Hints:
The chain is an alpha/beta fold. The chain has nine helices and seven strands, in the order αβαβαβααβαβαβααβ.
Amino acid sequence: MNNITGMAVFNATLAGKRIELTKELLPTAAVMGYLLNPADQMSAIESKGALVSARALGIELKVLNASSEDGLETAFVEVAKLRADALVVAGEPFFDSKREKIVALSARGGVATVYAWREYVLAGGLMSYGTDLPDSYREAAIYAGRILKGEKPADLPVKQPTKFRLALNLKTAKTLNLTVPPQLLARADEVIE
């Protein structure tokens, strides 16, 4: 008998969209890095989506792996060696726990970096596109309340996110000597100046 339900963050499947938005931000970008944690069970799905989008846009995409702090340092050294025009960072728990470090490594290397969640942009990152986490957390709390009031988990469908956020940090863009295209700026849900 199935008596579970849950929430999906839907993050790995947004890899292609992050590549597209990065290309929109940097139209001349020809080489990009994509930082993945190979220990994350969704990394293969995310890698595949990113590679397909990059190929369609004529971008050479280099997948970089890191699952430790030393691995992060090594990945950013590799980004510099590649002379990558941009780096996209997968949204997953280890990277999120190292958010400040990753943003600092991006700033130190002068790398235009795109993230999964707006919290990176609030920490000084350039751009993010992904699930609206606060909205997902609210939905999870509603489900918990419904279950505590007696509803059976098996009767509740697995919830998928319906809200996604595009956030831009214009201060970081200026530091990187980037001009954000007006059409991208107009679509942003949040702009930090």
